[in-house]
Amino acid sequence: MNNFDKIINTIEKEDIKPTPKWYFQLKNTTFWTIFVLALVVGSIAFSIILFSVQQTDFFILQHIHHSTTEAILALIPYFWLIAMSVFSLIGFFSFENFKKAYKHQWYSVLGLNVLLSLLIGTMLFLSGGAKYFDETFANQVEIYRSVEEQKTKHWMNPEAGFLAGEIIESKIDTLLIKDFNDKNWTIFYHDMFIPPIIELEKGVKIKVMGGMQSDNAFKAEQIRPWKAFENQQKGKNKRKN
Amino acid sequence: MKKQNCISFSDRELVKLSLKDTSYFECLFHRYESKLLTYIKRISNFSDDEALDILQESFINVWKNLNDFDSDLSFNSWIYRIVHHQTISQWRKATSYGKNKTIDIEDVTNLTAEASKNHEDRERKMLKILDLLPEKYKTVLILKYFEEKDYAEISDILKIPEGTVATNLNRAKKAFKELSVKHRISFFD
Questions:
Q1: Chain A residue at shortest CA distance from B155
Q2: To which CATH superfamily is domain A157-240 assigned?
Q3: What CATH number is given for B102-189 in this structure?
Q4: Chain B partners of A99 at a C-beta cutoff of 8 Å?
Q5: Nearest CA in chain A to B70
Q6: How far apart are CA B42 and CA B36, in angstroms?
Q7: pLDDT tens digits, one per residue of B90-110
Q8: Is A6 touching B (CB cutoff 8 A)?
Q9: Of A212, A184, A208, A185, which is closest to residue A198 (Cα–Cα)?
Q10: What is the DSSP letter of B144?
Q11: Cβ–Cβ of B159/A3 closer than 8 Å?
Q12: What are phi and psi of B128, to 5 degrees?
């Protein structure tokens, strides 16, 4: 019996058959699908991180006296940072299973994967997709709080000097606003500088920093539009007209 | 299948035909049997019988994975990869069970007394020095200088980037030279 006969005997005796082609195709398709999905989810995560950063009121850090570090830590969108890291790693490991993956250094594969997530994520953010995904996610997942909800929670804290709501009446030196819990507040802003981008008109949503004077009165130190970018745009349009 | 019939087919054609008729698989076996046996013995210290067992197991793996043969890759690199993987995993098992067959430094230094006039002796001396090197250096040197593979082929066989092949090769050559000097072994006397 020659060497090859031994091989053929084993193959026949143990009925060893070549693994079907579809198995390998399915395996490759699975890894490609995982890679693409991980890239998409990683990109969505990054776009929501950008959206979250855009919506974050970093100026409040100057007004938080007890712990700036704590405040910074509270502003970091951990959930999406973890999601982006996890899905970048999933994408990396699925890429490593591609037939030609070994041709590339692991760090360039990981780097490229993260870079793609950043690029697609930025495009999603610029096209307004981030807000849509954030809100959709908040509607579908009960425990998830959208960026807007988190922002609202932060600004509905008059004891700490943060209040937000919609102007229902505007007078000289005072505003009457309805906060997001439908409670009315009188805001005093005597002698305070008001940036030109803010229009203190009925129906405009604002956020106010200052101090609580009584159960329904608030002394303002700063007044800003609730959505800075929208109001800036409105202000520019108004100036053009 | 008669050997004359095998010659007219390329490796790729033989892979396709093997899936329909095992006699073509025999052509592939005979085409690679001798050089793969030599390769197994070069990268491990297995005996002839052990090397043959590994070759047979490797060919059974080749048979199982015939449908996965990537036409972008040469069959030569693909079969070397399978045999390499099989040999290294068997070798690691063998050495981890206390059957450490690596050579002692004394065995290497004894070689200085041996005649080294012909090619075989020189290769034997080199392989003994190579046994003292880490596995990744040893395999890359064997593939480059004994099996005469280029960087792309070594990259395909070891499944590492070509840049890593070049780096490992440079370090391996340096380490080999240091060991040769340390043990006062010359390969060109």
A1: A103
A2: Nucleic acid-binding proteins (2.40.50.140)
A3: 1.10.10.10
A4: 70, 72
A5: A99
A6: 10
A7: 988 888 765 544 445 445 445
A8: yes
A9: A208
A10: I
A11: no
A12: -70, -40
